[in-house]
Recover the amino acids of this structure.
């Protein structure tokens, strides 16, 4: 009887000592992401729980095995019984065709294991010619702004341009992205120069007026990328004037880019890439066939975007086979854009 009591007492003491102080539990310890296409960002979630009876403190940020991985801690301390998510991001750019194992060292005041090692593992598939990452799209990304009245915009405008009448520009100061090129145009370029000045004074260092407006555009590159709803109402021709705050039509036209969002209208309205055109998948062939020509020296890059990349990449592959050499899909869909550039998503009413 005495021996049984001693065993019970010892077990109780050991159990109590196991709970004494902070104790870190992690679920999972290994995150297997399967396969990702090169250029995609893997988002791995680890749940950290303090299973002890004292505050669990993380004295410093986790250490990752390469610059391709980041693991920012949302807070430095967990109370007993409290949990939080540690989100780890792995950028697969440059790892195509390789099996990947990445480690994250997590430090805490858990006396039993002051350093825990979390692991991400999986395979990075090489991207196909029609597949592009969010960072590739962003590299050539710009926003095209038509400053004319809506009626003039409706009659004829440049492909992919959004309409912000000059008088409404200052109300858009807090909505427009400051970290990408913004190309502005009006009929003759005068209003666009003023708009570029306003934006630059408000921190938009990459704001430029298209020299000469639509008149200058037609003088330089003709009707390249000009969408005419009313073909009889083409904008006037004119001579572009260049200056410090201008960009030439030829420069824009030689790497013209348009983003086509294939998602349903309500998903598009909830959040889309600025300037993206919403086209239903079944309407895409007709939409492409009706695109204005690139003109001499012009080149059009079309990016297809959907929710997860599956439909967009399938369509891009088919269009490539049909001769559309510069059609790309956004690998991983709109979610990949949000991971990298979450501040560059517009909901309905903002673009």
């Amino acid at each position: 009887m005495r021996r049984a009591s001693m065993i019970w007492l010892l077990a109780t003491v050991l159990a109590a000592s196991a709970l004494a102080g902070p104790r870190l539990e992690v679920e999972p310890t290994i995150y297997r992401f399967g396969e990702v296409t090169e250029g995609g960002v893997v988002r791995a979630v680890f749940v950290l729980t303090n299973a002890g009876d004292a505050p669990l403190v993380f004295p410093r940020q986790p250490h990752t095995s390469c610059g391709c991985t980041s693991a920012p801690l949302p807070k430095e301390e967990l109370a007993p019984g409290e949990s939080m998510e540690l989100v780890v991001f792995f950028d697969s750019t440059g790892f195509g065709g390789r099996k990947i194992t990445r480690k994250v060292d997590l430090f805490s005041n858990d006396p039993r294991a002051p350093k825990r090692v979390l692991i991400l593992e999986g395979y990075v598939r090489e991207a196909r010619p029609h597949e592009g990452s969010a960072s590739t799209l962003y590299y050539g990304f710009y926003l095209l702004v038509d400053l004319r009245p809506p009626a003039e915009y409706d009659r004829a405008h440049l492909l992919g341009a959004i309409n912000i009448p000059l008088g409404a520009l200052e109300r858009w100061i807090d909505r427009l992205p400051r970290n990408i090129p913004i190309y502005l145009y009006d009929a003759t370029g005068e209003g666009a120069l003023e708009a570029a000045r306003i934006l630059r004074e408000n921190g938009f260092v990459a704001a430029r007026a298209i020299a000469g407006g639509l008149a200058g555009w037609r003088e330089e590159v003709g009707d390249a990328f000009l969408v005419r709803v009313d073909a009889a109402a083409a904008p006037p021709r004119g001579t572009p004037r260049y200056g410090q705050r201008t960009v030439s039509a030829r420069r824009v036209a030689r790497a013209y880019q348009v983003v086509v969002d294939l998602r349903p209208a309500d998903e598009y309205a909830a959040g889309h890439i600025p300037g993206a055109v919403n086209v239903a998948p079944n309407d895409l062939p007709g939409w492409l066939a009706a695109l204005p020509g690139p003109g001499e020296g012009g080149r059009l890059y079309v990016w297809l975007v959907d929710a997860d990349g599956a439909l967009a990449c399938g369509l891009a592959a088919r269009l490539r086979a049909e001769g559309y050499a510069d059609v790309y899909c956004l690998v991983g869909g709109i979610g990949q854009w949000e991971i990298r550039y979450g501040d560059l998503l517009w909901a309905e009413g903002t673009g």
